[in-house]
Amino acid sequence: MKNRWASTPLPRLTGPGLAVGSIQQARRHKRTFDAILTCEDPLMKVSSRVRFHGPHRQDHLVLRFEDVDEDCPHLWQATEEVVSEALSFGREHTESKMLIHCVAGIRRSTALAYAIASDRLGPGREQEALDYILKVRPEAMPNGLVVGIADRLLQRDGRLIRTLEQWEAKTPAVAMNREARATHIHKYPELYALKPHADAVFIVRNP
């Protein structure tokens, strides 16, 4: 699916904080951050991946999974291990300038940013976390599967999900996007990576 939304410029972080962006923005600005969390398509060409070449001080976590909202066990989708790794990375870098990105900077990255922001703010402040993500990334449409997993891991009893659903009820474009994504997956399954073998690499630290 093609991205129809222009990327919002990355926020200018003068101190610790979260930024969310696209792969193009990550390539351009990665060295201005202390930590980079990359959501990567499993089938992405090596030449298209975001990597650091030569000496660098940045801590880089790469997570590989397809952008699917609903549980699709036959596909290479987000898992508890993947989301847990993202949350741990966020906890390690509370005093860092962190960039979270996927391909478009709209779905997977905003879902992980929402989860990390909610974790940092604590229970009962899910709306504040979502508001922050929407402020720095107005085009955000957080991946539903990732948010659901994060809700379980953070033991929020559905608050992460309900907060997102309440916002979506006021934002019809999000529901349309999710429906279009589901249709695309069913229509073009060959474009999505199948569930990997047990030895497949989901998580890479400082590749």
From TrEMBL:
This is Dual specificity phosphatase, catalytic domain. InterPro entries: Prot-tyrosine_phosphatase-like, Tyr_Pase_AS. It comes from Thalassospira xiamenensis. Gene3D superfamilies: Protein tyrosine phosphatase superfamily. PROSITE patterns: TYR_PHOSPHATASE_1 (PS00383). SUPFAM superfamilies: (Phosphotyrosine protein) phosphatases II.
